[in-house]
Amino acid sequence: MSGETDDPFAASKIAVTGRLFILKDDLTEDFIRASGPGGQNVNKVSTAVQLRFDLAGNETLPEDVKTRAARLAGSRLTLGGEIVLQADRFRTRERNREDALERLLDLLRKATEKPKPRKATKPTLGSKKRRLDAKKQRGQIKKMRGRSSGYDG
């Protein structure tokens, strides 16, 4: 055995993309009791993982990636600048740890993708004509609702 493990938490750096990585020191794990079914085990063993990533204090990610990650995190971002992910899908700690880390890395990978800039376009001549024709037709329908002028009744 060479001493290497497949555990991503064992390394000091965790790869996000080919060039970007996060430091293990920016991650904090808390084990909590999972909700839901689990029999007698559920009230005794803390298998759920609450993974915290210090986004504000991170120095390895560029600012634009941090900004997009904060927007993608939404309500999972604390006022202190931490992304909090809770994983309790599986019955074992290890699977929940892997799940939480993978979800964090997915979020950070999405944040690395720059959004395509929107190009302003003008409406086509045909669409303008169709819009005005629809407005005229609607106006005619409303005009027909008025009182008739030719009846003395």
The biggest sheet amounts to: 3 strands, antiparallel
The end-to-end distance, rounded to whole angstroms, is 105 Å
Mean pLDDT, to the nearest integer, reads 78
Rg, nearest Å: 28 Å
Strand content: 15-25%
Oligomer: single chain
CATH topological fold name of the domain at 13-112 = Double Stranded RNA Binding Domain
Question: What global shape is seen?
Answer: elongated
Secondary-structure content class: alpha+beta
Assigned CATH architecture of the domain at 13-112? 2-Layer Sandwich
Number of extended strands: 5
In CATH's first tier, which class of the domain at 13-112 applies? Alpha Beta
* Strand order in space, largest sheet: 3-4-5
